[in-house]
């Protein structure tokens, strides 16, 4: 074993050790709500919806059909142009329209900022603000379950993201599995340990008094959801993942659509960490109720990066041996090819088994056909592997922008 192989193996072993020890230490947390709240609070629902006329009606009707009723005048659809066909549909269904004044600021955080400032300027008070995407569909009991989280006293809560179109093709299926992994494996564990969950994208609420204190929505990065999650950890806010509050959204069906989306997520992830992690690291010098959340986030995905880096070094090292032996000595080092194949097989197998375990665990919840679940088990390792080139592009690309994905899928919830 040479020096390169030793370094690679140490990276893999070090990543595993940090992951295990870090997970154990991060479980020491005690950040539960200190006070409960009264039922029947006044809720607002904010929906950024630029050119979403093909899907907005489905979301608004699902809001109307909630068992926990909200006044449709407390539902705000945010558009960039008063001539957007989304406006006529929204008005027909009784919801409010907010037309943006600064549509040149493309990120969702800016749209929410404008809407909240407009609501606050009208002197309206809400006990909680729900953030939904226009392509979402709410299960009839979504708000009822989320209200329970609000009553328990949590500052932020997020529901269970299911998919409208996961069975359309394997790209959509693997895309929703990413969020399922975040929730079922990550956030559910954090619930048990009273750690801060990761808010991802949509389907969440924010305590109204927080919004009023902020006087807007101060999260404007490429990933405003993750930025807000880090803010919650820094300020010891309480967060909860409510797996009973189900909503559905549309996943991309073409691989080319997922690439700019994931590049944006990765760049936003690291931009947010660059701003928050130094402050979280300083807070770790003394024990407090949210210490475990902050330690877990400071460690973050570094152990996984170490393991992937170690495997990558081994693969490149043996590929170099194979190529140089063939070019300069005219011999084939089949042992190098066997080593590369073995590493790839082990990595593929681990992820496939993890995917199968996740699907089995969520079998009664995931909106995927049995055939698509089987396909996803075999394809998901390949899909996750494509995060590596997305990662490299995100780090090297000079400017990463927000790219729109068109939403067109309708969806009907099947009642039992």
From the alpha-carbon coordinates, what is the Rg to the nearest angstrom? 23 Å
N-to-C CA distance: 60 Å
Q: Tell me the series of helices and strands, N- to C-terminal.
A: HEHEHEHEEHEHEHHEHHHHHH
* Largest sheet: spatial strand order: 3-2-1-4-7-6-8-5
Largest sheet: 8 strands, mixed
What does this structure look like?
54% of the residues lie in helices and 11% in strands. It is α/β, with parallel strands linked by helices and 416 residues long. Strands 3-2-1-4-7-6-8-5 form an 8-stranded mixed β-sheet, with helices on both faces. β2 (75-79), α3 (85-92) and β3 form a beta-alpha-beta unit. α1 runs antiparallel to α10 (291-299) and α9 packs across α10 (291-299). The longest helix has 29 residues, at 255-283. The radius of gyration is 23 Å and the shape is globular.
Topology:
Blueprint: H1 3-26, E1 43-48, H2 56-64, E2 75-79, H3 85-92, E3 96-99, H4 108-121, E4 128-131, E5 137-138, H5 142-151, E6 156-163, H6 170-192, E7 204-207, H7 208-214, H8 224-234, E8 239-249, H9 255-283, H10 291-299, H11 302-328, H12 334-361, H13 370-385, H14 387-396
Parallel strand pairs: 1-2, 1-4, 2-3, 6-8
Antiparallel strand pairs: 4-7, 5-8, 6-7
Helix pairs in contact: 1-10, 1-11, 6-12, 6-13, 8-9, 9-10, 9-14, 11-12, 12-13
